[in-house]
Amino acid sequence: MMSSAMRARLRALGLIMPLMAFLLVFFVWPLATMMVASVTDGTVRGVLPQTATVLAKWDGEGPPTPEMAASLVTDLRMPVDSLAFGDAVRRLNSELSGFRSLMSRTASAAKGAGEGQALDLVAIDPRWGDAKYWLAMKRAMPLYTDRYLLAAVDLERDASGNVAGLDANTSANRQIMLRTFLIAASVTLLCAAIGLPYALIAAASKGWVRAILLIAVLLPLWTSLLVRTAAWFILLQNEGLINDALKTIGLISEPLPLIFNRTGVIIAMTHVLLPFMVLPIYSGLLTIPANLMPAAASLGASRIKAFRHVLLPLAFPGLMSGSLLVFMVALGYYITPALVGGANDQMISSVIAFFATGTANWGMAGALGLILLVVTTVLYLVYGRLSRSPTMVAT
Amino acid sequence: MTLKRTISTIGAAGLALSLAAGAASARDLTVVSWGGNYQDAQKKIYFEPFAQKLGKPVLDESWDGGIGVIAAKVKAGEPNWDVVQVETEELELGCTDGFYEKIDWDKLGGKDKFLAAGAHDCGVGAIVWSTMLSYDGDKLKDSVPTSWVDFWDTGKFPGKRGLRRGPKYSLEFALMADGVKPADVYTVLRTPEGIDRAFKKLDEIKKDVVWWEAGAQPLQLLASGEVVMTTAYNGRISGINKTEGKHFKVVWPGSIYAIDSWVVLRNSPNKNDAMDFIAFASAPENQSKLPEYIAYGLPQKEAAAAVPANLAADLPTAEANLVDAVALDGAFWVDNVEELTSRFNAWLAQ
């Protein structure tokens, strides 16, 4: 008895092994890597170990000491993997712009001069006389850091180590994050407003009408996102089909600004995401027994009343899962805002893409992703609570 | 596209690469360039003839730049690209970060055969290309823009303007529109006041700008009349004029020219073939064929000298086109691109 249950469980486990392996390799592992990347910071100390020790003792006050300069030269003379050195320089440059040219100049001077020979760093580059470069190096030494996470929400540690707001001129992540949620929410609402009636009609119709209605939803789903976005580009532009048609029938004289603004982004995203709203509602409606509405009518409910008290509550779970699906997918949109949006419509994934592929600052990309993940999870939990209660009432 | 996908793509690419590392030695030489009609031309004059000479296939792919892409490939171990054409700051960044193999200059006949900016320890110049003001000659006839001051003058030339999204080029052009002489642009930009000044100037046309990202977009914007003028790459403009009979015009004074270079990725399994390919693509008899297809300048001096005069006049390297043109300051952007892009993004979001 025990062993057969065990065997069944093992077999079940064996069956989901491919799935587990897939999730681990393509979901958990990359996610964990990015999370770790967003809080660790060992690159500089790995390449400049002696400088790290000396700088740890420096109080950060007053001019740079000869001891600091000597330890830096010693570290730079050590044979080091060029990739690791590059990582360290990139990290330093993101702390304070200018370290790239400074470090490559200094490293080649240190290697060029004879072993053991003292070097005047200020003569190599006058920037070494400025304490702010040494301070930046000191800040880059600890193994764990919260700088990426802070920077992801427009904060930083000031010179005395307190958390302070970043200059509004240098970072607008909070604003872009807020905008991302606003756009995703508007798209979700619009999808619900169009998707619910659409699914109701599709579920109520029969034969070829239903087939056509479903094909109209599914066909776009099978088309590449890029193609659909490009199609909206053609439709929405000033001399595009929509503006031309409106001008021909004399409704407008000047083209409506439909593209490179929020309107264009919302229209295109709503179209692209509509199937994710229609399909869950539709499949939910199909499971409702066909005799419920006649039953309600036979009990004396008017059509409107039957709709409000019978059909709508039963469609609610589908509506909720559709909304969740649309909202979550919309949060990550990148291509559509980039092509049909204006400067003020870029969403957080464009910032993440900039750090990931543009500058190889994976710590920053990971931190932004982590913040997005946390906020989304919190929203999901809130949503879970909110969406549960109406369903309970319905059943 | 989504965050999850971005992350898992990076992870998956890494995994796939490390898994493939053992078997990758059989992979054919892979050359990566910038796509479009430019890469078509390269295929005809470089990739196909070189494959014949080599007796093995040469694969070609295209990309849109970004040092992060290179970093991901190199850090995964053995990269699946060999030769890549990169922009100035990717060359500088990747070279300091150790992403590229050092160039074997003996195979290329020495550095002095090339323009100074095209002879780098890590890269060999492939083309000289310009970013400049351009407009549709069929739409603007009577009064035409001649400078960045005109680009900023929305009273004289009403309509939207196209600019490449990002601080690079935008800040330089803004300063020139504000009266800075082309030769002084980077001196001014190296001061905090200069950067403030450029952003303040950009404020003036912020609501009139359509920001583009890919090189083909400004052509589309001009053709559809969405913008009255835009910045664009000179080769693409002359290319579309040739193939589609457009009359797009370019303004050479105030343009910014830069060199794209061939690099070989670190630990490339085809390193020797890669260096031979670069030598082949830099040989005067091969490189001098390029301007026939697309109007980019040639960094190899003998190749540049062999270009027929009628073609040479359209190139960014022509004497007349260099008057008041600015050379992109790679060192400036290597140090400042990240900080200024953050600021630029914040400025856009406000």
From TrEMBL, chain A:
Cell location: Cell membrane
Keyword vocabulary terms for this entry: Cell membrane, Membrane, Transmembrane, Transmembrane helix, Transport
TM helices/strands, residue ranges: 12-32, 176-200, 212-235, 265-289, 310-335, 362-383
Keyword Phosphoprotein recorded: no
Record Pfam families: BPD_transp_1
Membrane topology: Multi-pass membrane protein
The keyword Cell membrane belongs to this UniProt entry's keyword annotation: yes
InterPro entries documented for this protein: MetI-like, MetI-like_sf
Residues in ABC transmembrane type-1 domain copies: 177-383
PANTHER family to which the protein is assigned, alphabetical: ABC TRANSPORTER PERMEASE PROTEIN, INNER MEMBRANE ABC TRANSPORTER PERMEASE PROTEIN YDCU-RELATED-RELATED
Family that this chain belongs to: Belongs to the binding-protein-dependent transport system permease family. CysTW subfamily.
Protein name: ABC transporter permease
UniProtKB/TrEMBL annotation, chain B:
Keyword Protein transport: no
Membrane-spanning parts: none
Signal sequence residues: 1-26
Keyword entries, A-Z: Periplasm, Signal
Keyword Signal: yes
PANTHER family: ABC TRANSPORTER SUBSTRATE-BINDING PROTEIN, SPERMIDINE/PUTRESCINE-BINDING PERIPLASMIC PROTEIN
Protein name, as recorded: ABC transporter substrate-binding protein
Originating species: Aminobacter carboxidus
